[in-house]
Amino acid sequence: MAERVALYLQDAHDLRDGLEYARYAEQRGFEAVWQAESRLVRDAIVPMAAYAAVTEKIKVASGVINNWTRNIGLLAATFLTLDDLAPNRIICGIGAWWDPLAKNVGIVRRKPLTAMKETVIVLRRLLNMERVTFHGEFHHVDGIELDVVHGRREPRDIPILIGATGDQMMELAGEIGDGVVLNYCVPPEYNTKALELLEKGARKSGRRLEDLDRPQLIVCSVDQDHDKAIDSTRLLLTQYLAQQPHIARASGVSPEVVAQIQAILGWPATKEQIEKAKHLVPDQLIRRITASGTPSEAREKVAEYIRNGCTCPILYSVGGDVHLLIDTFSQG
Fold it and tell me: Are residues 96 and 59 both part of a single domain?
């Protein structure tokens, strides 16, 4: 039986190139294409619709959108629309966002666990085509439903996976999610505790760990030239360790290194600043928390994540030949 594998696209590639990558991944047996929504650069929904329109079998997922900036009715209608475009091929990956970006655009992420729980509960009920009244701390709806007049009225099969990094969100994902999107830039052994927390959450809702899907984002720079692949990843880590401190903590990177990088990078970071700070990211860290190197080296590292509980690697090509990455992990 072929292993599950997915492609992750963010903002490094032209959108039209992304359409071609999605089609090629489908041809090569990939299960899904995930579109990021990160920083203030690229919305996830528009590319998802485009990928869905030019493919026939591959699943299309948000990896991940946040639960703060879309009204719950609009959020449900958006995924209903995507499912109309690609029936039974849409996955909703949703996360709690992160500071300082949220704070910089006026979002106060108070009680993130409560906010996420309410979002998932109401979103799932709406996608089940229920009429919903719900009054919580963050969502207040009165007798609303997805009022389809022309089209399919049946409940929609759209898995809701929570993008979790911290312990409490991981446990919540196990309790209420159809699964979890495990984060990138963490070592494979990070998953040991994550799985314990997922199982603890799953037991609260009468389920087992095996009932939860556990795809994982994995930075995967593949090149026939080992050093070139490593350097491509170094640029990404320089930016993300500075701008997403929750990832830095999960990666075990020392606060001193993060502070040094942050002292050089502005917001938003420029290419020149990233180049200036990249020497602070050592090769050892790159090898520990990413799958970077030659095709054989990348396959070997991805296999570690699978052995540590990842059910489907979601491969993020940070540079170089995307076709080579797809071919390296081809299932067809």
Answer: yes
